Amino acid sequence: MLLSYQNTEGPLNRRIYIAMKVAIEAGRFGADSRLPSTRTLAADLKVSRNTVALAYEQLVAEGYIVARNRSMMRVSSAVAVTRRFKPIQLKRAKPKLSAQAGRVMEASALPPTSSFVTAPPPLHYDFRYGRPAISEFPHDIWRKLLAARLRQSSRGSLGYASPAGYGPLRQALSGYVSRARGISCNAEQIVIVNGSQQAFDLIARLLIDPGDKVVIEEPHYHGSRLTFEAAGAKLIGVPVDAEGLDTTRLPVTSAGVRLCCVSPSHQFPTGVVMPLARRLALLEWTCRAGAWVVEDDYVSEFRYEGQPIEALHALDRGDRTIYVGTFSKIMFPSLRLAYVVLPSALVEPFLALKWVTDRYTTMLGQEALTDLIASGHFERYLRRACTRNAKRRRTLIGALREHFGERVEIAGDNSGVHLLVWLNQIKPRDVEKIIARAARVGVGIYPITPYYSKPPDRAGLLLGYASLNEREIRAGIRRLADVL
Ligand SMILES: Cc1ncc(COP(=O)(O)O)c(C=O)c1O
Questions:
Q1: How is 357-396 classified by DSSP, letter by letter?
Q2: Is residue 260 within 8 Å of 215, Cβ to Cβ?
Q3: Which of 72, 351, 358, 470 could make a disulfide contact with 395, Cβ separation 3.0–4.6 Å?
């Protein structure tokens, strides 16, 4: 029998198995037809009988052939059925998606590939928001902590773990949120998640049914909005002014709102801080409306004048606040570690959802992070990063003032890792042209429009500065001024 197996790679028996399978699928043997015995085929192919026997064994195991005995092999009758399939037609048909997948696709949830670190755009001065100063992170310490934990890994630490996350990390975080954010909670209320994004998604699954109303800030963080949209929420955008979400514009308490998502310590993207009176008004509204409030505290550690502002959670006497903290900005995004501080009544159902979704967050990073916090390195690094970011922020503001003067207006408080910059003499429709012109000279700048439900009537840019040093910031803005 002629069998072409010379062009494939791997052990001989596997190559013969593949060649036989291809021949069967192509219809060279009819269903039920008899195949050569192992002895005959081995002689034809000039290989050992054992090699052929191994190939036949695999075909039998997969159901392509049926063995009556060692020398009596027949092609399985099931082969005729597989031949009737028209895989090409199946491929072409548009798959029927769930309503949730449809909503996610409609919202264009996938980021452009240029936003991944694996495909950096060729920009010398990239003011992309969301990139921390990865090169200045204490990698040596981090590597040592990871290696030490890897060396210790025991059977216990390699098995399944609690959906709540690593106990000692939750314990360390309950101390940290108390010191840094004024939040008083016990470790049982803290759940470790894979980034804030998973926190928002689980919160949406926990509290929202299709058609439920959710209040979001306008403008807002699109990451959380997408999870609420995916859950089928009806979004109500409440405008943000110089004091954050305008609580006088919240829907009436009888409107049946389930959830309100805010970033009070550094509103995203405007950077404004919500003052005490508004915080209290928001909490009061939440209690009266029977709604929950999600506090997205993504970057509160970076406050450059005075102490970080206490979290909204710290003021909440009604146990209605779900606090979300992340390590993406203060360490690096690929760590995918964040945490949620939950009202006691929500802990158990949240854990059940986390367990159903992905069991629990991987352990190694959690263990090393516990050690980073316990050793004091974490908070020391935070202080250094804060000083460095403050300088970068001042440098960016200085460069913008020097080159653009009154032609730009800078929004936001003295904190965060980005600036919202309004371009006074530019029309909103010309922003894309300016971005393209800047990219041609190696400067990455980004529009503010994706963060608005309705595009604003002013031209605005969101400029991240944490990952550029002061020289790069000055050079980037000088270049930008040249092309504008
Ligand atoms: C407003 C806001 N919240 C949260 C996050 C953090 O997201 P994650 O923890 O999923 O990386 C970001 C990241 O860009 C953000 O801008």
A1: HHSS--HHHHHHHHHHHHTTHHHHHHHHHHHHHHHHHHHH
A2: yes
A3: 470
What's the rounded Cα separation, in Å, for the pair 448 and 469?
A: 23
| Domain membership flag for residue 89 | no
**Cα 339 to averaged position of ligand 1 atoms, centre (Å):** 12
Closest ligand 1 atom to residue 296 Cα is 3
The domain total for the chain is: 3
Only one residue has tokens 């405007």, namely 270
Please state the three-class secondary structure of 134-153 as a single string.
HHHCCHHHHHHHHHHHHHHC
Instruction: Establish whether residue 176 lines the binding site of ligand 1, counting it when its CB lies within 6 angstroms of any ligand atom.
Output: no
Assign 353 to helix, strand or coil.
Answer: helix
**Does the C-beta of 451 come closer than 6 Å to ligand 1?**
no
Q: What is the predicted pLDDT for the residue at 107?
A: 86
Last residue of a domain, which of 376, 409, 435? 376
Q: What is the pLDDT of residues 32-79, one digit of tens each?
A: 888 888 899 899 989 999 999 999 999 999 999 998 776 688 999 888
Closest ligand 1 atom number to CA of residue 324: 4
On whether both 24 and 43 belong to a single domain, the answer is yes
Which residue puts its alpha carbon closest to atom 2 of ligand 1? Answer: 298
326 lines ligand 1 (CB under 6 A): yes
Considering the domain architecture, whether residues 182 and 300 belong to the same structural domain is answered as yes
**How many residues are recorded in the chain?**
484
- Ligand 1 geometric centre to CA of 46 (Å): 63
Pair (121, 145) in one structural domain = no
Q: Nearest-CA neighbor of 391 among 272, 474, 308, 480?
A: 474
More confident residue, 91 or 180: 180
pLDDT tens digits for 392-441? 999 999 999 999 999 999 998 788 899 999 999 999 999 999 999 999 99
Q: Both 271 and 387 in a single domain?
A: no
Residue nearest to atom 15 of ligand 1 (CA): 298
Q: Whose CA is nearest to atom 16 of ligand 1?
A: 221
Kindly report the protein residue whose alpha carbon is nearest to atom 3 of ligand 1: 298
Answer yes or no: is the C-beta of 227 below 6 A from any ligand 1 atom. Answer: no
Q: Residue 264: which domain range?
A: 138-376
pLDDT digits (tens, 9 = 90+) for 244-292: 999 999 999 999 999 999 999 999 999 999 999 999 999 999 999 999 9
Residues 165 and 261 in one domain: yes
Q: Cα of 419 to ligand 1 centre, how many Å? A: 16
Domain assignment of residue 79, yes or no: yes
Last residue of a domain, one of 345, 376, 407: 376
Residue 108 inside a domain? The answer is no
Is 60 contained in some domain?
yes
Mean pLDDT (whole number) for 211-219: 98
